[in-house]
Design brief:
Elements lengths: L1 E7 L6 E6 L4 E4 L1 E3 L12 H6 L4 E5 H6 L3 H6 L3 H5 L4 E5 L2 H6 L4 E3 L4 E4 L6 E4 L1 H11 L3 E3 L11 H24 L5 E6 L5 H14 L3 E4 L8 H11 L9 E3 L5 H10 L3 E3 L2 H7 L2 E4 L2 E4 L19 H5 L2 H9 L3 H27 L3 H12 L4
Parallel strand pairs: 4-14, 5-6, 6-10, 10-11, 11-12, 12-13, 13-14
Antiparallel strand pairs: 1-2, 2-3, 7-8, 8-9, 15-16
Length: about 375
Amino acid sequence: MKFIPQSRSSDSRARTGTISTEHSDIPTPVFMPVGTAGAVKAILQRDLQSLSARIILANTYHLLLRPGMEVIKSSGGLHRFIGWDQSILTDSGGFQIYSLQENSRVSERGVTFRSHIDGREFSISPEEVVDIQNILGSDIQMVLDYFRGPPASKKEDHQALKLTETWARRSRERFIQTRRNNAQFAIIQGGLHEDLREESLEGLKRIGFEGYAVGGLSVGESGADFSRILRFILPLMEGDKPRYLMGCGSPEEILTAVEMGVDMFDCVLPTRVARNGALFTGGGRISIKNSQYRLDPRPPDETCQCYTCRNFSRAYLRHLYLSGEINAAVLNTLHNLHFYLDFMEKIRYSITTDKFAEFKNSFLNNYHKKE
């Protein structure tokens, strides 16, 4: 993997660049659609290609449980198994340790957990997470990490970051031993404590990785804390390596993070809310199930050129949703992902033309208007 920084905004830390992997060249800042179990929900790989998606995210934990590594290995890796010829980033499962704490035990060796599917017990080490991702054949691997999440104490956050650093060192050693034509990113922890965030980053830098991610945010902290931690840690991250903000999803959060220098994003938000009848538009988010759209002949967004907006009305999409039709999820998801990927393209263009601040202000003014 190679990362080449390119344009830089003159009035912020916003920047463009290109991440090149064996499978694709990825323009940054980039939003990665989330395909947790090897599929982005309610959309075909063909349609992701048509939206110019160059990378998706899959999850090691979920793929380990189902279908299992034997199935994916026999298929020649995850790319062939899911029919996706662009890049794949695989998360390590650290967030699942956090979100399923009642079913997991953490030690220096690794994690023991019970499957949320059938209750079977699994035990995996940081090294085994690397081995699993090698079977998957992902272009970018994330190391196994650990965080407590709010409202953890500073002592708990410090213990978590030290364990994350220990695991990261062991993960790096295994990655180098088994290295393919791919990359490995480490994850900065430390909760909402600036000194711990710096300690975590410096420890990971000493090990050395192809990229670094900020973890443990977008998990319930305030907007002020979210911005404060990013504002502090991003200038300390290496400028010639990709900066990845994990799990960050709203357009407002993305603009804030891009302004501070983030290159990579992922979130289930656009696909999850699509399945629940919410659509992103330039004028803000709308809930298509509302009665005001019953007779509305307009597309979801009159400025959008996606397949959904070019062919269907709000009234029809409301009808599909209320009828429980599968096509409601499909068409809503197609629109929301088009909105996000087009949004990122506009961000990149605004940075290249040195008009990012102007674009940000204009977007937010329109996005927060009431219909």
